[in-house]
Design brief:
14 helices; TIM Barrel; eight-stranded parallel β-barrel; 2 domains; 369 residues; globular; binds NADP nicotinamide-adenine-dinucleotide phosphate; 43% helix; alpha/beta
Length: 369
């Protein structure tokens, strides 16, 4: 489409106030450790639907098609009452990928098809998604995992209706630029990993050793300094949740549902027990005092160190990204602000995780205090 772009993003599909959606990665049966029984995973989907969940988010890669397949089986008889979002991989042929998703889902359209990642040639893929939308294969199109610079560009390429990005109590990059951009542009914001991939389920008293093939072995917050920081905060959050007579995941989901600009919180769950617990977040409430305590716990655990003058000297010989971080490590700036300021320059995106990991390395080598 391109010239002018973003004309008709599709019908009004998205809720006006934030709701819980069903994140269907885990029910795919792989990449999450031992899979729950298929009957249990089907029951989790069925319970979510019965209790009023409308949006179900999946992807061809979740369980290598199994997530879409199970959703198709569980939601087929209720197709007109639910909304299904799937994705197209950054290197996949959008037409073929969506056609195969539709077959697995047993439907002739999805409500939202999203470009899963930004990679070379993404603009052309987004244009193809728009053509598929015009052909009636998808009611709306969107993108996931784009930086704010890339999302601004996407708005000029095609009439996207939604953006999906990571957002939870700990991972708050999107607050800097992406959420405001979605609000200004009238895009629905779909928050993924609202429980930090299960960390906010509260079951990890020490850094977990996941089995081979569990994607969480690659997530930096399940180990090292970041796990230790998050663990400290989780102890505090658990006390706050207990005081409100809710579980930790419900506290985390309620917090997200209350963030301005969030449209759908995609809570992942593999069992009906988790679905039932998570749904109580919609009726829970967080008072001002609790919200302030949450913020204070976060601030104290995640204060970045300041770079030393020796670091500034050494950084002269480092790459531009590392130099940028050192220049901005003043003991006051947040990792999210530093990452967003770098990304503003438009070359390569950076996320807070990279700042935190690098700051930990400086700290360990005495180049930050
Ligand atoms: N666009 C993207 O690139 C992208 C990336 C990631 C996720 N997503 C989407 O976002 C959805 C949600 O993210 P996610 O599934 O990765 O992670 P998540 O929602 O942050 O965490 C889900 C995990 O948390 C645990 N959990 C859930 N409810 C619980 C409860 N009440 N009590 C205790 N533990 C609980 C479960 O772990 P156990 O099953 O191990 O108990 C569950 O599998 C995905 O399903 C997917 O639809 C999109």
């Amino acid at each position: 489409m391109h010239t002018g772009a973003r004309e008709h993003s599709g019908p009004l599909l998205f809720p006006v106030s934030a709701v819980l959606g069903f994140g269907a990665w885990g029910i795919g049966g792989s990449a999450w450790g031992a899979p729950a029984e298929e009957s249990e995973r089907l029951a989790a989907i069925a319970l979510a639907r019965e209790r009023g969940v409308v949006w179900f988010d999946t992807a061809p890669t979740y369980g290598d098609g199994e997530s879409e397949h199970l959703l198709g089986r569980a939601l087929g008889p209720h197709r007109s009452k639910v909304r299904i979002a799937t994705k197209v991989g950054p290197r996949d042929d959008p037409r073929r990928s969506l056609e195969q998703s539709l077959q697995r889902l047993g439907t002739d359209y999805v409500d939202l098809v999203q470009l899963h990642e930004i990679a070379d040639g993404w603009e052309a893929r987004l244009e193809t998604l728009h053509r598929l939308q015009l052909a009636g294969k998808a009611r709306a199109i969107g993108v996931c995992n784009a930086s704010h610079v890339e999302l601004s560009r996407a708005l000029r390429v095609a009439p996207i209706a939604a953006y999906q990005g990571p957002f939870n109590l700990f991972d708050r990059d999107v607050e800097e630029r992406l959420l405001p951009l979605c609000r200004e542009s009238g895009l629905a914001f779909l928050a993924f990993r609202p429980l930090a991939s299960g960390l906010l389920g509260g079951g990890f008293s020490e850094s977990p050793g996941f089995s081979d093939g569990d994607h969480r072995t690659k997530l930096y917050w399940f180990r090292g300094a970041e796990f230790a920081r998050r663990h400290l905060v989780i102890a505090k959050l658990m006390d706050l949740a207990a005081g409100l007579r809710i579980s930790l995941p419900v506290l985390a989901l309620r917090w997200l549902l209350s963030r301005t600009g969030v449209t759908i919180v995609l809570a992942g769950a593999r069992t009906p027990v988790h679905v039932a617990d998570n749904l109580t977040a919609q009726d829970a409430s967080l008072d001002e005092a609790t919200s302030r305590e949450i913020d204070a716990a976060m601030r104290s655990a995640f204060r970045l160190p300041a770079a030393t003058s020796a670091a500034a000297q050494e950084a002269l010989g480092w790459g531009p990204r590392e130099r940028f971080i050192v220049e901005h490590l003043d003991g006051r700036s947040t990792p999210e602000a530093i990452a967003a300021a770098w990304t503003d320059r438009g070359d390569q995106p950076m996320v807070a995780a990279q700042v935190k990991v690098f700051a930990d390395q400086l700290l360990a080598s005495g180049l930050a205090v």
